[in-house]
Each structure stands twice: as structure tokens, then as C-alpha cells.
Amino acid sequence: MRAFGVRGVPVVADGTRWRRACRRRVLWGGGEVLVTVGVVLLLLVVHQLWWTNREAGQGAERKVEALEREWDAGGPADLGTGPAAPTASSAPSASPSGATAGQRSYTAAGASRPGRSQAYAVLSIPRLGLRVPVAEGIDRREVLDKGYVGHYPGTQQPGQAGNFALAGHRNTHGEPFRRLPRLRAADTIEVATGAATYTYAVDTILPRTSARDAGVLRPVPRSVVRPRYGYVEPGHYITLTTCTPEFTSRYRMVVWGKLLSTRPRSR
């Protein structure tokens, strides 16, 4: 409703001014909410992409150093069971399938298997500049989010015949497998324990498969989604798995390697 002054000049009613003031307050309040939400989201991104990496990365480095100090001091040796394998100098060369005649995993007699979420080995990949602890299991909170690489329960231990399978984050929480796509055939992968260092060579890379492709973890690993990737003969294999594409968990990338040599730790 409008009212007119004595000279016919329109005068804005109080109700109109009140409605305009309300609209301004609503717009201003909405802007403040959007800014606040944006700041919170930015902080969450910083936390995920920077702080979790920093915290997990430093923790993983400390664990690697602690394991190596323990081994140098004559602490617990390899975890597992079975007789000793030949040394790197005396072991027979690997066949095309990755198996070696008479080769066995070097383990300490009577040693116990690793406990759940226990870090017991160190994975090193020279091309990626990576040195990270290996822990038993793939529990997200107790293993992967600490920046460790997790050993799939039910798969073999380092150096044993069969498939030694590992999982690691590609993004956030130390992201040990962030640069896994840089690996090429013949790149070396080392797994050190208290008893020996096992050297594998990258052999096959599966760029993408289903997150439920259990075939990649079998003793003779072979994709059930993309069957042309994998093996048909027994051998000594290592399997590295991580999420792909980056910042998603829809698919898995898989890297396979074959055992080249076993070098017992000098004491």
C-alpha cells in the first residue's frame, strides 16, 4: 500500500521498508552461512590432503626406524613358519613363471606369525622413493590410516611360495601408493624382515579392475574380471593393490611381481 504526501510525492510505507530490510538480512545471513560452510569444507580438505599425510607419514617413518633398530639389536626375526631358503648368491634363478626350483622362504624356526595390525616388515620401492611399514591385516583405522601397507590375511608371507598380497592408500593418510602408476616392468620391490630381505621384480600391471576381483589375491593370481592379466603357474608372487582413479575407491589398480632373490640378514 502506498500513501501520498501533500504535493503528490509517493511515500514508501513502513511495511515496504520492513520487507526490504528483511530481505537484506536474509541475503546477508545466507552469505555468511555460505562463507562459513566454505571455510569448514576448506579446512576438511586441508586436514585430509595435508594433515593426515603429514601425521601418517611421520608415524610410518618412525615405525620403519624402530623396526630396523630392533632387527639390528637382534630382536624378533621373520614372522612365519618354514625352513630357510637359499641365499641370494646360492639360490637358483627364477623361471618365467616366477617359481624357483627348491626355493623356500627364509624364516626363523619356531617364530610366531604376526599379530593383528602388527607391523613386522618394511616395503621399499626404489623407483618411488618409498619405505613404509608392512602390518598384518588391512584394517583401515589400525593399519592403512596410519600410513602403513597392509598384508591381506590368508595370503602368503614374504618369500613364501604363493602370493604375498598388500594394500595401501593412494590418497590421504600417508598415501604410500600414490605414485604406484609410475612403476614399470623390471622395477625392483624389496621386503625386509628381521631375518631376510626379499627382492621382487615388477612383472605385470593391471591398470583397473573391480574392487571385488578376488582373483588377484589367489595363490596363483589372475584377474577374474580381465582374465588376460595374471598367471597360470605356481610361483613366488607379490601383489600390490590400491584404489583408482585417484580420490575414489570405485576400482583397484594391481601390480604383480616375481621373487628374484632372498638375502638373509647378517647378525
Properties at a glance:
alpha+beta, elongated, 26% strand, two-stranded antiparallel ribbon, Sortase, Chain: A, 10 strands, 267 residues, single chain
What's this entry about, in short?
The protein has 1 helix and 10 strands, in the order ββαββββββββ. It has 267 residues and is α+β, with helices and mostly antiparallel strands. The strands form 2 sheets. It has an 8-stranded mixed barrel. A two-stranded antiparallel ribbon has the order 1-2.
Q: Outline the biggest β-sheet.
A: 8 strands, mixed, barrel
Q: In sequence order, what are the helices and strands, one letter per element?
A: EEHEEEEEEEE
List the uncertain runs: 80-111
**CATH third-level topology:** Sortase, Chain: A
Describe the global form. elongated
Described by its quaternary structure, the protein is single chain
**CA gyration radius, whole angstroms:** 28 Å
User: Under the CATH scheme, which architecture would be assigned?
Assistant: Beta Barrel
CATH class: Mainly Beta
* Number of helices, where a helix is a run of at least 4 consecutive DSSP H or I residues: 1
> At the fourth CATH level, what is the homologous superfamily?
Sortase
Helix content: 10-25%
**Helix/strand/pairing class, anyone?**
alpha+beta
Tally of domains: 1
**First-to-last CA distance:** 96 Å
Strand content: 25-35%
